[in-house]
Amino acid sequence: MLRVEGLTLSVKGRALVTDFSCTLEVGQITCLIGPSGCGKTSVLKWLAGILAPGIDAEGALLLNGQAIPRPHCALAYQPQSDALFPWLTIAGNAALGLEVAGTGPAAARAKVRPFFPDFGLETCEDLYPDQISGGMRQRAAFLRTIVQDSRFILLDEPFSALDAVTRLKMQGWLCDRLARVPRGVLMVTHDLHEATQMADRLLVMSAGPGPLAADIPITTPRQNRSEAALAEIRTTLKNLLLET
Amino acid sequence: MPLVKSILPTLLLGAAFLLTWQLYCAMAAVSPLILPAPTDVLRALVVERAALAPHAISTIGVATLGFSTSVAFAFVASVTLHFSPWLQRGLMPLLVASQTIPLVALAPLMILWFGFGILPKVLLVILVTFFPILVSLLSGYGRVPQAYLDLLKAMRAGSWAIFRRATLPTARPSFFAGLKISATYAIVATIFAEYAGARQGLGIYILTAKNSFRADLVLAAVVVSAGLTLSLLAALRLIEGLTDPAQRKSRNAEG
Q: Domains, chain A, ranges and CATH?
């Protein structure tokens, strides 16, 4: 269990986020939503240990009750763009996290190879990022994140660069993968449809600094999440976002 | 065919220039001592080829040594300055100032300080070619996307790992752009250094030809110098192509 306690972020004394607390569980997808500029991405970057130098932060990060430093190997971060290095093959990109952590290049590639079929990338190992489609690039980025064996994954709008159809496919695909390789996921998104389809829990941030506007669990199983079943929760979310 | 297509405009314009020059010499009846026609230059090149060759080889030697040393220095300096912003702030204005020193003042001083050997020439080539490579490397380092840095930092990569895995590969195109700019200066700087004082080299050949009022030989040496610069650029382009991960298998992925 990963817990953020009393996180406050400020820029030159002006509060950006105040008293943000939440808990992430392995096997659960938590979506962080809120109006533009409310500090969602900053919260995610703080967790990843890559907050911009001008932002001051106070707060604690606890893993099973123990305070941990950031960046930490229990958390893997995936930036908004796929951030695949154009000079590395897809196999090289997928193995990047393992190599940075000290695994030898050959061993790292051997470890990522078995994942390629499951990620729909079996023919792409030796291709370069600009030789494959946007959806495949995103899957390669997920592979790079997942093979790091971190218990928690931080995703910053992972589908924002994809077209609508690919986005829908990828949302379902990611939920399937996470069902097989359980991780605790914190995903920042703007998309209410995406959030309600994927999340086990929704954390709604308010526009101004302050505690969370809402913490909404979604108990309906994913396969039963029809438009009608989600209508009520989406209306609630819309109202919350328009109010904040 | 694509190669022919890409160099065709250059060939046509070059031919038009030479033809105009040739016609002007023929029609205006200019003395070959003042302006030799392209055919005169070509004749001089053929007749003097045995005399020109050792000079050209000497120039290639100095230029290659100076240029390679310069690339090595510029790389080490760029890494040092990248990891020490304080040093970068302090040194860059001095390096810019070093570029404002007129070669015409420096070349004779170099000869005075270091003699007629290879050292003053190599130093002059380094002085001329070092700065563009350094600046292009530093500017390339600055172009690494924030997402790459964030990704590696979140993976707990240290500064050197970030440099090696993201910053340096990002700087590759800038590095080669700087190399090409510097390469065009390398031969010219060598010839200038030789002109100021040398036993052998195209510079001293040009000086001797000028003193004998042999404009055709001066221009023949210029043609050789241009040929050397173009060969250096072609070699760099080849190295860039061979070491580029983009030069790879045909595109065979889904659309």
A: 2-74+152-243 (3.40.50.300), 86-149 (no CATH)
The total number of structural domains in chain B stands at 1
Chain B residues inside the 8 Å CB shell of A103: none
Check whether B165 has a pLDDT greater than 70: yes
Flag whether pLDDT at B5 surpasses 60: yes
Task: Check residue A244 and give its pLDDT.
Answer: 61
Measured between alpha carbons, how far is A18 from A7 in angstroms, rounded to an integer? 6
Whether the predicted pLDDT of B254 surpasses 60: no
Collect all residues of chain A within an 8 Å Cβ-Cβ radius of residue B154.
48-50, 71, 75-77, 154
Nearest residue on chain A to B168, alpha-carbon basis:
A87
Query: Is the omega angle on the peptide bond into residue A71 within 30 degrees of 0, that is, cis?
Result: yes
A96-133, pLDDT tens digit by residue?
Answer: 999 999 999 999 999 999 989 888 898 899 999 999 99
Q: Please write the tens of the pLDDT for every residue from B61-77.
A: 999 999 999 999 999 99
Contact A71 B248 (CB under 8 A): no
CATH of the domain at B210: 1.10.3720.10
Domain hosting residue B107, numbered range: 38-242
Q: Which chain A residue's Cα is nearest to B255? A: A133
Task: Give the residue from B143, B150, B175 with the most A CB atoms within 10 Å of its CB, the best one to mutate.
Answer: B150
- Taking the CA of residue A94 and the nearest CA in chain B, the distance in Å comes to 12
In what helix (H) or strand (E) does residue A32 lie, and over which residues does it extend?
A: strand A29-33
Domain-embedded: residue B3: no
Section B75-98 average pLDDT: 93
**Bigger pLDDT: A121 or B3?**
A121
Question: CB-side exposure of A166: number of CA atoms within 13 Å?
Answer: 14
Q: What share of chain A has pLDDT > 90, as a percent? A: 50
What's A85's DSSP letter? -
B150/A45 CB distance under 8 A:
yes
Q: How far is A174 from chain B (nearest CA, A)?
A: 20
Average pLDDT score over residue span A65-86: 92
Amino acid at A29: I
Contacts of A75 in chain B (CB under 8 A): 154
Mean pLDDT of A148-173: 87
Q: Which chain B residues contact residue A83 at CB under 8 A?
A: 145, 147-148, 150-151
How far does the CA of residue A101 sit from the closest CA of chain B (Å)?
Answer: 7
